[in-house]
Amino acid sequence: MATSNLHNILLTGASGYLGGTLLARWSAAQLPPYATLYALVRTEGQAQAVRQYGAEPLILDLEDDEAVTRAIVAHGISIIYFLIAAGNARYQPTMIRALAQVQQTTGREVHFLHTTGAKAFSGHAGHPTDIPLSDADPSLYDLLSCPKAAHPWLGRASGVNRTVIEAAETHGVRSYIFIPCIVYGPGEGFGNRISIQTQAIVKAAVGTKHIYRVDSDRPTWPVCHVQDTASLYLELLRRVLRGDKLDSGKQGYYLAASGSVAWEALYDAMGQRLAARGVVEDAAIRDASEADLERIGEVIERPKDFVPLEIGGKCTLEAHHGRQIGWEPQYGPEHILAAAAEEVDLILGNL
């Protein structure tokens, strides 16, 4: 096992939209010293790709708890950035227990960052939407502990966040819940280059030839450019590597958002480009009927009852924690509307 005082870092999700952009921006971030960056990969092709970014590939079967534990302990990994399986708590507890072993052996402080999603903090999850919620509010954990989710997946996602926090607390690991929102802009990594959220709007339009709203009012949702999302990941890491004491555990929520926009405004901005490209019959926004929701679900490969969760709803969570540690997004919330045409073109070129 490595015994250096410098941290060894493990990144999961390096082939994804967020993880790939994070990895692509890693070397330019001029982070404080660390020992080795490992990237979890599944194939030799991915292994070759992550090496180009200065990461050491680590091929692991996450279903094999013993192998995962051995690898983390043997490599002296003390920071894990977990960017996969937001709705599944199968893998995180094993990694957290392994981090605790590393801490016991090396005396080095250990950290686990779990990536979730803004849906778990929205009205869909049964949380308040009539007041702003700050990600730095010390009572946020208690407020979010007993949600009445509108869909079983959201109940599981909220449960995963609690599992991570509680497992880390039990084993003396510092944990952070990282919350992406509607992320947009071209991914910069070697794998997926397009957003999940904006992709769903475009795919629904392609499949139905129309733009549909799924809410009866004009709800808003937090937004953030993918570069700004990556920069918050990196700012958190910078602070950890410097030895700063960040809020963690039950106070460790970090939303990456520059502000919020109305779904209706996003539909309209993207719809204008979709109409100009001939993807939809016109740019009019229609109310989705039950039959429309069924069809959209087929197109985006989601159950009908999940469609409003995918492309609608209200989330009043606000990003204060990141700004408290020096993170400042480059792009304001209205930029997503100005960049909607480029976003549509990017998605159509990568479907």
TrEMBL record:
Q: What's one GO MF term for it?
A: aldehyde dehydrogenase (NAD+) activity
- Residues annotated as domain NAD-dependent epimerase/dehydratase: 9-104, 162-243
Q: Name one GO cellular component term.
A: cytoplasm
- Top-rank taxon, per record: Eukaryota
Q: Which InterPro entries match?
A: Epimerase_deHydtase, NAD(P)-bd_dom_sf, NAD(P)-dependent_oxidoreduct
A single Pfam family it belongs to is Epimerase
- Put simply, this protein is called NAD(P)-binding protein
Q: Which organism is it from?
A: Aspergillus heteromorphus CBS 117.55
